């Protein structure tokens, strides 16, 4: 069997990345070729390093090269407040706000019975073990405001409330710069329900 053309093989592999079509993969492949062997080697080493060095934090389940991760090691973070998110990109989005000073727990997904994703497929057991070993005062549920995120939030609430924990949900509603006229009914209803005094 003949070995595939190296450029075609690279394009094929790059096209497997999320959001990358064949045309973009082709542009990336030619960029790598044009940049030279030094860049290609650095890129290959970076990819190999991610696979080799990144693992889950034993406490919060985020991706890290150190265990525990930097957030879990930070003595300035409030260990008694845990923000539960679906994935690492959600954690990073909350961190960019510079508003939250607690710790996190990453579920690595959301409940989706139609896709065969149940509680045992998420890092929920790890959260319960963590709470047993190191009790918290508040769990902030920051799952996405979609069907799966809402189902996950409801499941976590039913699981955690009986433990005597304060379970809160991030506010939802009309985004900054949005027009009320174009907001859907559910978004407006949540915005009204979550109103606060000025």
Automatic annotation (TrEMBL):
Pfam families xref list: RecR_C, RecR_HhH, RecR_ZnF, Toprim_4
Keyword DNA damage found: yes
Zn finger residue spans: C4-type: 57-72
Record PROSITE patterns: RECR, TOPRIM
The entry's keywords: DNA damage, DNA recombination, DNA repair, Metal-binding, Zinc, Zinc-finger
Domain Toprim: residue ranges: 80-175
Function: May play a role in DNA repair. It seems to be involved in an RecBC-independent recombinational process of DNA repair. It may act with RecF and RecO.
HAMAP family: RecR
NCBIfam families per record: recR (TIGR00615)
PANTHER family recorded: RECOMBINATION PROTEIN RECR
Family: Belongs to the RecR family.
Protein name: Recombination protein RecR
The organism of origin for this protein: Anaeromyxobacter oryzae
Gene coding for it: recR
């Amino acid at each position: 069997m003949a070995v595939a053309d190296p450029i075609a093989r690279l394009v094929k592999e790059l096209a497997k990345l999320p959001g990358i079509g064949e045309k973009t993969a082709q542009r990336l492949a030619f960029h790598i070729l044009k940049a030279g062997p030094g860049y290609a080697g650095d890129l290959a080493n970076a990819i190999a390093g991610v696979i080799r060095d990144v693992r889950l934090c034993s406490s919060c389940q985020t991706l890290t090269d150190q265990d525990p991760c930097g957030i879990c090691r930070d003595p300035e973070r409030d260990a008694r407040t845990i923000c539960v998110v679906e994935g690492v990109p959600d954690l990073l989005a909350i961190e960019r706000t510079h508003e939250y000073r607690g710790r996190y727990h990453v579920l690595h997904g959301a409940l989706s019975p139609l896709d065969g994703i149940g509680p045992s497929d998420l890092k929920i057991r790890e959260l319960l073990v963590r709470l047993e070993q190191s009790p918290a005062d508040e769990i902030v549920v920051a799952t996405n405001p979609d069907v799966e995120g809402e189902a996950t939030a409801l499941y976590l609430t039913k699981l955690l409330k009986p433990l005597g924990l304060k379970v809160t949900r991030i506010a939802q509603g009309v985004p900054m710069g949005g027009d009320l006229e174009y907001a859907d009914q559910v978004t407006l209803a949540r915005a009204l329900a979550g109103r606060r005094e000025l």
